[in-house]
Structures are given as structure tokens and as C-alpha cells.
Inverse folding.
């Protein structure tokens, strides 16, 4: 509890701007916080949630009366649960001092309650255990936060059980659910309706699963091209982690009218984006992920339908708030609802994906060489858990179009895949060639060597760089492409937070800016559902690509169709 802003529970706790200050602020000197991880025995809890909670605790960002409760069907005592958590904690933030003490202090706040997900009695037991421990804090108000870290098929039962039997009687109750869920518009809406029967809009926090999944991207939630419906692409330069962060010791807080000065890209880049001379790609390539064992393939079978969300449409930032007052005052807003309104507007402006704008791929075996040390690299169908002859894609490339005045004619190409040659996630903005260009090194009809690119790399090594062309020193006239770059780890000797830390802190603070709203999810599904159904109906076979390659050749044809160079 070393963060002065939190100690005072001042309105600056969660806000970067006046509008954002509208987010309710808790007086933590009067209230306690119970975090309940439902599915506490699972992989995600161990890998991400417990370490993130510990990191926040270690940094003094959790309220002083914070407690952690695990809930799952597995039988465990409090002691066994503490041992399980203890094995997941690392001293990554500050390996030098006090980490062991902090770990012990953290573990002393952890409790476990075994119980089923679909029976109210289990949650009643949990409620008793929480109430008991909350009473010991002596605080009048006990807030509760649930993280549903369980498979989506038990979401509704668990949310219902928790909300109906274990809500806080004195403070707020918030429930985190990872989205998107479902296979298409209809199944997603059904799940959404199920949750809405138990949770109000205020209580439900829909986390963007694919953004969170970009491990170990500390700036994953922020280092994105942010696109307002007015068409301004807002690159979060120079400090993405700070821009949307609450006061945090890793992000020294600036004084003054913060949001208006910092919420858009630097003036230079804004000018660049005023012209429609750009092409944007968001690529994700995963090589090292376990794709052929431990059920990875099964997971793939069920989630591949939502792959387009992995490279989700560029998130917008409101140019002006959709709130009438803000529009009249021409004020920039970082208010959660305003941001999400703008995101919905962008999605509403997007055309549904056409099948001819989709390339699907599936990786095949490749005889060993290089990294594999000579071993054969297995194909997707070689996994014994994969149904024989499965048409499940392990790669997708898609072209999207935004039908508004700013982006008319600018293709947005997205790709995501497994078993590719490299692993990473980035947004790449390609600028078109300069009309009347006197340099002749053409590599495509509209792209030549003098094409500039802005790259926002989310992982690995978070960075932002501008690819420019430069004359090679010497007496000759030879051009070369070089980078003006900012690598976060080189520029700042600060530990970048994990995306789950950001997520959990936002929920504690009631800040919904980075969460998915139901109408946003609905719009996103509307863009993809028809093509997903068509792919299923026509049984479209994915194009095979070798394990460890750049993906199917079709993806390059798709890029070429839009005059984009795809690296
Ligand atoms: P797990 O498969 O590890 O399941 C979590 C817990 O849920 C298990 O420990 C088990 O606990 C219980 N459980 C498992 N299967 C079932 C079932 N069929 N019915 C009821 N309960 C079940 O999942 P993860 O921890 O990997 O993931 C949790 C959620 O997070 C999922 O929705 C997943 O899609 C999502 N996610 C996971 C990521 C990861 O890296 N693992 C990344 C991004 C999202 P018990 O038996 O003790 O009750």
C-alpha cells in the first residue's frame, strides 16, 4: 500500500481526464476487496491470474484489505492452495529486495473453497468463507470481484451461482468474463443473454481474450493503432503503457490537461494519417506455441471460428466524446463509454467479410531442418486428437474495409496463424508511394522502395518504428531502408506490466475503457458470421502450408490484390 494516490483514494485513482474521473472511486480506507478466482485449479489461474495479482499487490496497487479466494471443484485446503499459488509466483518485478516477504504476505491472504459450478450450495459456502474473512478486516463495505477462469460452457452457471448466492451485500460485485465467446452471432448472443439474466451491465466486465493472450506483451492492451470513426489513427506514442494507465510507479504521472495533450498521435503522425495513403496490417504469427500436443489442436478446433478477433479491428479512440456536452466543447474524452461508443461506430462502418477476401490455411508436416535439429515437424492432422481429415484452419488472412469518408478504399489486412516461421504481433501501416516519385526501385504497382512504414510491435520486444529511406553514405546515389525506432526495453529500464495486471487493476477501479461491451461484440460478430457460415456450408478446404513457413501462398495473393507488400 505504497501508492499515495491509492492511499488518498483521490479522484485521480483511475482517471486521466476529467471525463474519466466520472468512474466511481472507492474509498479503500473504508472498504475491503475480495477477489474470487472461479476455476482456481486451472491453467490460466496459475499461469496468469495469480502472478498478476501478486504483481499488483507487490507494487502496492491493491487495496490494503485485499484477499484472494480460489473456487473450483478440486478438493484443496487453504494450505494446499497457498502452495499451489506459491509455485506460480516469481520475483520478476523486483528480484532484488523484499520479494520473498511480499510473497509470504500475499499467500497469507489466500483462501480456498471447493465447490461445483452449477449448484447454489457451493457458492453459499464460498459466501460464508468470504464473509468470515471480510469481517476480520473490520471494514463496513466489502467489495467482491470474480474472475471466471473456466471453460465457456459453464460461464452462465458460474456467473449465476456467484451473482445470486455470493454477491457482496455491502459493496459492489464485478465479474470478469473473457470474450469473445460462442461460434457465431447467435451462440454469442445466447451466452450474452444468459449472463445478462444474472449480471447487470455495470457488473459484467468482458475482457478481450485475444489481446490478453498476447503474452508476454506488457503493452499489449495499449500498443495499438487506435482508429476513431473520424478516421484519426492514434498511435500511442511515446508511452502507450502510460497513456491509458492510472497512476502507476512505472509511469510517472504528468500534470496538467493530460488527455487533450496526449490522447492522439504526435502532430507529425496525425498529418500523415490525414491522407488516405495508408494500408494497415495486424499480423500475428505463432511458432513456439504447443500446436500439436496437450489438447492444443482441440482448443484450436473450438476457437478458430473466433480467430478474426485475434487481429481485431483497430480500436478507436474518440476524437470527441459521443456525449453531447463534450461534442459542443470539442473536448477529447477518455471516458470508458465514449471510447466504446466510438469502437462500435467503427465496427458499424465495416463491411461484412466476403469469402474472396479470406485465405484459410492449415499447416502440414515438414521434414526436419534448422531449428528442429533434423526432426520431422508434424502437421496439424498428425495430432491424434485432431479428427481425421479435419478442415479446421490454423491460419487466416482477411481483408476488411471501413466505409467512412476517411478510410474509403484503404484495405485493412489481418492475418493470424500457428506454426509460422516467426512469432509476433504487430500493426504495420504502409504508406503509399509518393506521386511523381523520382526513385525507381519498384517492388509492386503502388509500392516502391520509397514507401514508408510505421510499425507498432506488440510482441516480442514492444517497439514502435518508422521505416524510412536513406541515402547510403558515400559518393554514389544508393538508397537503403532504415529505421527510426523506439524499443521500450531499451528506452525505459522499467518492467512492462503483463496485460492481466492491467485488466485486473481496471476492474478494481471500475474502469471499462478497455473492455468489450455487448453491442461491440455483436457488431464484430455481424462482420464475420456470414462468412464463417459460408465456409462451413461449402466445406472450404484450407490451403496447406509447411510447418515453420510464412503461411499459405494465397495470403500473398490476397495482399497483392490490394497492392500490399506482406512481409
Ligand atoms: P482449464 O481447462 O485449465 O480449466 C479451468 C478449470 O475449470 C479447471 O481447473 C477445472 O477445475 C475446471 N474445468 C475444466 N473443464 C471443465 C468442464 N468441462 N466443466 C466444468 N469445469 C471444468 O482452463 P484454462 O485455465 O486454460 O482457461 C480458463 C478460461 O480462460 C477458458 O475460458 C479459456 O478459454 C480462457 N483462456 C485460457 C488461456 C490459457 O492460456 N490457459 C488463455 C486465454 C483464455 P476443477 O475441475 O477443479 O473444477
Amino acid at each position: 500500500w505504497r501508492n499515495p494516490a491509492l492511499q488518498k483514494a483521490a479522484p485521480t485513482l483511475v482517471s486521466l481526464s476529467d471525463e474519466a474521473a466520472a468512474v466511481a472511486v472507492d474509498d479503500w480506507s473504508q472498504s475491503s476487496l475480495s477477489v474470487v478466482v472461479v476455476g482456481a485449479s486451472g491453467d490460466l489461474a496459475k499461469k496468469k491470474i495469480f502472478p498478476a495479482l501478486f504483481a499488483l499487490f507487490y507494487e502496492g496497487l491493491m487495496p490494503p484489505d485485499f484477499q484472494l479466494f480460489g473456487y473450483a471443484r478440486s478438493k484443496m485446503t487453504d494450505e494446499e492452495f497457498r502452495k499451489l499459488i506459491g509455485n506460480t509466483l516469481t520475483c520478476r518485478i523486483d528480484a532484488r529486495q523484499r520479494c520473498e516477504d511480499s510473497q509470504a504476505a500475499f499467500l497469507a491472504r489466500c483462501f480456498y473453497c471447493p465447490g461445483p459450478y452449477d449448484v447454489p450450495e457451493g457458492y453459499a459456502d464460498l459466501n460464508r468463507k468470504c464473509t468470515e474473512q471480510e469481517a476480520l478486516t473490520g471494514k463496513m463495505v466489502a467489495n467482491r470481484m470474480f474472475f471466471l477462469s473456466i471453460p465457456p460452457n459453464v460461464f452462465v452457471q458460474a456467473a449465476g451461482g456467484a451473482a445470486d448466492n455470493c454477491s457482496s451485500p455491502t459493496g459492489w460485485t464485478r465479474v470478469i468474463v473473457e470474450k469473445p465467446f460462442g461460434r457465431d452471432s447467435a451462440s454469442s448472443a445466447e451466452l450474452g443473454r444468459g449472463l445478462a439474466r444474472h449480471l447487470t451491465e455495470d457488473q459484467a466486465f468482458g475482457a478481450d481474450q485475444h489481446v490478453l493472450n498476447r503474452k508476454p506483451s506488457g503493452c499489449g492492451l495499449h500498443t495499438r493503432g487506435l482508429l476513431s470513426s473520424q478516421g484519426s489513427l492514434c498511435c500511442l506514442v511515446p508511452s502507450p503503457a502510460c497513456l491509458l494507465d492510472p497512476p502507476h510507479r512505472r509511469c510517472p504521472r504528468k500534470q496538467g490537461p493530460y488527455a487533450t495533450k496526449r490522447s492522439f498521435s504526435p502532430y507529425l503522425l496525425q498529418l500523415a494519417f490525414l491522407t488516405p495513403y495508408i494500408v494497415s496490417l495486424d499480423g500475428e504469427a505463432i511458432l513456439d506455441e504447443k500446436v500439436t500436443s496437450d489438447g492444443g489442436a482441440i482448443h484450436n478446433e473450438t476457437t478458430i471460428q473466433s480467430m478474426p478477433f485475434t487481429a481485431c479491428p483497430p480500436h478507436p479512440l474518440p476524437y470527441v466524446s459521443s456525449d453531447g456536452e463534450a461534442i459542443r466543447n470539442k473536448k477529447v474524452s477518455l471516458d470508458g463509454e465514449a471510447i466504446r461508443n466510438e469502437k462500435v461506430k467503427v465496427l458499424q462502418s465495416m463491411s461484412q467479410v466476403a469469402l474472396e477476401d479470406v485465405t484459410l490455411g492449415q499447416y502440414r508436416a515438414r521434414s526436419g531442418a534448422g531449428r528442429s535439429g533434423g526432426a520431422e515437424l508434424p502437421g496439424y492432422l498428425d495430432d491424434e486428437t485432431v479428427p481425421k481429415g479435419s478442415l479446421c484452419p490454423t491460419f487466416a488472412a482477411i481483408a476488411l474495409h471501413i466505409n467512412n469518408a476517411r478510410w474509403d478504399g484503404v484495405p485493412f489486412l489481418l492475418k493470424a496463424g500457428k506454426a509460422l516461421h516467426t512469432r509476433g504481433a504487430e500493426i504495420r501501416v504502409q504508406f503509399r508511394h509518393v506521386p511523381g516519385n523520382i526513385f525507381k526501385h519498384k517492388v509492386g504497382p503502388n509500392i516502391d522502395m520509397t514507401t514508408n512504414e510505421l510499425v507498432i510491435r506488440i510482441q516480442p520486444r514492444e517497439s514502435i518504428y518508422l521505416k524510412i529511406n536513406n541515402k547510403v553514405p558515400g559518393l554514389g546515389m544508393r538508397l537503403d531502408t532504415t529505421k527510426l525506432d523506439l524499443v521500450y526495453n531499451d528506452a525505459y529500464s522499467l518492467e512492462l506490466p503483463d496485460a492481466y495486471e492491467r485488466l485486473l487493476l481496471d476492474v478494481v477501479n471500475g474502469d471499462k475503457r478497455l473492455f468489450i461491451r455487448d453491442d461491440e461484440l455483436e457488431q464484430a460478430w455481424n462482420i464475420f458470421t456470414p462468412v464463417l457460415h459460408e465456409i462451413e456450408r461449402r466445406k472450404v478446404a484450407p490451403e496447406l502450408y509447411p510447418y515453420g513457413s510464412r503461411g499459405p501462398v494465397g495470403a500473398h495473393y490476397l495482399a497483392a490484390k490490394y497492392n500490399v507488400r506482406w512481409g
